[in-house]
Specification:
The complex is a heterodimer of chains A (about 190) and B (about 190).
Chain A lengths: L4 H14 L10 H8 L3 H7 L3 H15 L9 H17 L1 H10 L12 H13 L5 H14 L2 H11 L3 H17 L10
Helix pairs in contact in A: 1-2, 1-4, 2-3, 4-6, 5-6, 5-10, 6-9, 7-8, 8-10
Chain B lengths: L7 H17 L6 H8 L3 H7 L3 H14 L13 H14 L1 H10 L13 H11 L5 H14 L2 H11 L3 H17 L8
Helix pairs in contact in B: 1-2, 1-4, 2-3, 4-6, 5-10, 6-9, 7-8, 8-10, 9-10
Classes of the chains: A mainly alpha (about 190), B mainly alpha (about 190).
Chain lengths: ~190, ~190
Amino acid sequence: MEESVDTATAILASAASLLREHTFDDISYRAVADQVGISERTIYRQYPTRAHLLAALSNWIEQTRFPLPPFVTLADFRDAVHERFRAFDASPAYAYVSARASAISLTLDAEPAYITRAIEAMLEVAAPTLNRRDRRRVAASLRYFSSAMFWARLRTGFDLDAGEICDAFDRAVGTVLARLLDATWAKP
Amino acid sequence: MAAPALSGTQAAILAAYAELIEEVGSDDVSFRLVARRAGIAERTVFRNYPTRVDLLLATAAWIDATVFAREESHSIFDIPLAIRDAMQRYDARPELAHVVAEAEMRGVNGAAPSSGRAHLERLLDAEVPSLDAAQRRAVVVALSHLDSAATWVTFRREFGMDRRDIADAAAWAAEAVLDGIRDRVAP
């Protein structure tokens, strides 16, 4: 039997609301089932393991709470990431779920995140003659320094706030881009 | 992650759990199975690790300190080499790399996500003492971020990179971070 889209959304919205009071580990299928008014079995059918639930919850949070502002240029990209880091700081419980979900062994289909494609597209336009290996090195670095993981590590491990994390991000991105010659960049 | 002193029983439990994680391809393994593999009673596992999270975090710390143990770097400019080696070790044990990466992303309830911080700061202060606070912090956080299992996970998942490409890209990024300070070493 196929569950309706509404049930899936209700489960995720309920789990997200429980994050206000509990960590993800403390959210039981029982509590979600009670809140939504469905059986625990229905949740298991949709999310056979907690890893499935974590991945789906993270997708839902990314879409509803942390929508990525579109970017075409490097300047737009920096602004978009700053905005995200500030949004993470405002909703840390959600941001940790996002960081954590991006570290788990994948249970869902392995589509790269939207931001990965956006970074690759940006570099294709900004640095059209850059060789493939360097382009991937740059894309991977930009992707990793703009991630929820970067925010989570700096917040938990270094006690930094969003402003300081944005500064560390700018400096890291600056060092990566400085490796490329000026001639790399397409003239507007 | 600092590895606390473990009793023989605890070491057996963590090793058994790590083994099962690799076999099953998930950390979703019952305490009963862990106990059986370790050759002890289930209640002994519970006495040492009351919850699943306790067990998982202790196992992640144990994996990081044993399976993924690093050779100590004696210069901040050796860190890219250490990162290259680390990526190859993660690639050889993918399930365990995921466990370590996830444990660091749980916020205050998780593992410390900056295990190498003190070491990086010590190296940097000895070799490049002239940095201001923001510069110093930027180098330490960037290298700390790159020298982690999360790097391997991200480069593999988001870019489909193989072992060589991940090691190359991570070391390349670390060299980029060091570019701004390579010629600022204290005489």
